[in-house]
Design brief:
Blueprint (H helix, E strand, L loop, with lengths): L10 E4 L6 H31 L6 H29 L4 E3 H34 L4 H4 L2 H27 L8 E2 L6 H5 L7 H33 L5 H29 L5 H28 L2 H21 L1
Parallel strand pairs: 1-3
Antiparallel strand pairs: 1-2
Length: 316
């Protein structure tokens, strides 16, 4: 679109990560490998959690939700980014841009609440093991998951409505590889201070509240671990939390750096690099962190693959 005051923007141009051809090819191969890893890894976890009755527990129910979410979280942004690295056409329609923004923030905010639910699950398992099956009953798990998805949808819907009502009539080049709120606000041909404040307030409320809940859960867990005299007991309890803590630090660290800082030119450049972590790398690392450090998941995966190979041999 022409950058004219009287022109109404009907499509945006995603500038991507870099315009250097040699670097684009390298990044395409690298990000494609991470995306395939995320695709296969998260799909495997969802499959084994559904197929293996030994994993029909609250912890793995929430883990299955997280992997299902990560599967679509990466798919919302990475395929468009990969096509932008190889093709000259980097356009995305206005409707497509808004849809991408909505889905991305819907899944992102839901993940924050799922991580908080998982920390509560670990708190109950370690600090109240005798009441675990009561406090984390099936209906409670479903309510935790449903609440996470529902609040995530409402949170994203508020950003979507506020953003799509803005007039875009000058520039249409998005300084990012996907449609996000902050770079879009910089393109609006009106004052966006209220929108930027709401982004900080809404995002800060969702991120900080869930992060604080996670910290509180782990304070109680750490306090309880001090009462365990057995070194083996403490080690076993800590091992059930280490994978979750790693994911929490990766997720909330990048989220705070991206959405709780002012939208300046320098910050938008930094946001593009930070976004690679939580859109490309983190969804690929999550299944590795959980699967490689979890004996139950590894055992279920081996059983799934052996059953699949046996079935194929029977077929032939």
């Amino acid at each position: 679109m022409e950058e004219l005051n009287e022109t109404i923007v009907t499509e945006f141009i995603l500038l991507g990560i870099t315009s250097l051809p040699k670097l684009q090819v390298f990044l395409f191969v690298t990000f494609l490998m991470f995306y395939l890893l995320s695709f296969v890894g998260n799909l495997c976890i969802v499959t084994v959690v559904i197929a293996d009755h030994g994993l029909h527990t609250p912890m793995y129910f929430l883990l299955g939700n997280l992997s299902f979410l990560d599967f679509f979280y990466a798919t919302t942004t990475v395929p468009k980014m990969l096509s932008g690295l190889l093709m000259e056409d980097k356009k995305i329609s206005f409707q497509g841009c808004i849809a991408q923004l909505h889905i991305f923030h819907f899944l992102g905010s839901t993940e924050a609440m799922l991580l908080a639910s998982m920390s509560y699950d670990r708190y109950v398992a370690i600090c109240n093991p005798l009441r675990y099956h009561v406090l984390m009953a099936r209906v409670v798990c479903i309510e935790l998951a449903f609440t996470s998805w529902f609040i995530g949808f409402l949170y994203s819907l508020s950003h979507t409505i506020l953003t799509c009502r803005l007039p875009f009539c000058k520039m249409n080049k998005v300084t990012h590889f996907y449609c996000d709120i902050k770079p879009l606000l910089k393109l609006a041909c009106t004052d966006t201070h209220i929108n930027e404040s709401l982004v900080n307030i809404l995002t800060g409320s969702v991120a900080l509240s869930n992060f604080v809940l996670i910290i509180i859960s782990y304070i109680f867990i750490a306090t309880h671990l001090q009462t365990i005299r057995s070194e083996k007991g403490r080690s076993k309890a800590f091992s059930t939390c280490s994978a979750h803590l790693t994911v929490v630090l990766l997720y909330f660290g990048t989220a705070f750096c991206t959405y709780l800082t002012p939208a300046t030119k320098d910050s938008l450049e930094k946001d593009r690099l930070t976004a690679v972590l939580f859109t490309v790398i983190t969804p690929a690392l999550n299944p590795i962190i959980y699967a490689l450090r979890n004996k139950d998941v590894k055992k279920a995966l081996r059983k799934l693959f052996s059953d699949a190979m046996y079935f194929n041999q029977r077929q032939y």
